[in-house]
Specification:
Number of helices: 9
Strand content: 15-25%
Strand order of the largest sheet: 1-4-5-6-7
Number of domains: 2
Distance between the termini: 51 Å
Bound molecules: zinc ion
Number of strands: 9
Shape: globular
């Protein structure tokens, strides 16, 4: 089974970077907003909204900007968030994390400039040849999908895979989407794995987690993305 990137006639940005969203620095409006909302479980929504707010004038309605942010690939959204954070609070994020090996609470001082920035150019459509014949066509998951996935509050990885595939599949063999979760649940595991592999290969890889080491036991680990540490001054 093979996957390949496919030229798409309807996407004018194919093969080069999409236009970037350039945020302004945060103001007291966004600081107050983050402090009020920072403990919410849906971190994707928080990130999307902070960015959208900083694409509009301070305190203004940002519903249109939010739709633009939700249409970005996750890596493109994260790239804009890095820009927003640097502009507002500098390069070093200070946070605390628990060492997964010895459970000690570790102070993390992480320079964001250490995060490798890949090109965020990506194909508009991904096409996969199916073992049983025919082809599948998918779009890439967006920042809006990430937000909706967290809202769906699914308990297992397999359920999340079912959900995501039903969301991004545009065509499967002779059938046109949209597809229900019931139909992607019914796909064979080799087919599901091939679709997921093709998405992974096509997605730009930008990881906002912060690699650090434990001073107590020397264990190297990644501190998870921390919304208040990322968007609020300490
Ligand atoms: Zn440790």
């Amino acid at each position: 089974m093979t996957s390949e990137r496919v030229e798409s006639r309807e996407n004018p940005f194919r093969g080069r970077e999409r236009p970037r969203l350039v945020p302004r620095a945060m103001t007291g409006h966004e600081e107050e907003w983050v402090e009020r909302r920072g403990a919410e479980a849906n971190t994707a929504r928080l990130c999307n909204e902070v960015l959208a707010r900083c694409l509009a004038p301070p305190g203004a309605d940002c519903s249109q900007e939010l739709e633009r942010v939700r249409a970005l690939l996750v890596a493109q959204r994260d790239e804009a968030l890095l820009q927003l954070r640097r502009l507002s609070l500098g390069d070093t994020v200070q946070t605390q994390a628990r060492c997964p090996a010895c459970r000690a609470v570790v102070e993390v001082d992480f320079p964001l400039s250490r995060i490798p920035l890949p090109s965020t150019a990506a194909p508009a459509r991904v096409e996969v040849a199916l073992e049983e014949g025919g082809r599948a066509v998918m779009r890439l998951p967006t920042a809006g999908d990430q937000e909706a996935l967290l809202d769906a509050a699914l308990k297992t990885e397999a359920e999340r895979r079912t959900w995501l595939l039903s969301r991004v599949l545009l065509r499967l063999g002779d059938s046109e989407g949209p597809f229900s979760e019931e139909s992607t649940r019914g796909l064979s595991t080799p087919t599901r794995a091939a679709l997921e592999r093709a998405l992974e290969e096509a997605l730009p890889d930008l990881d906002l987690s912060m690699s650090t080491g434990c001073p107590e036991c020397g264990h190297a680990f990644s501190a998870p993305f921390d919304v208040p540490a990322f968007f609020l001054p300490r």
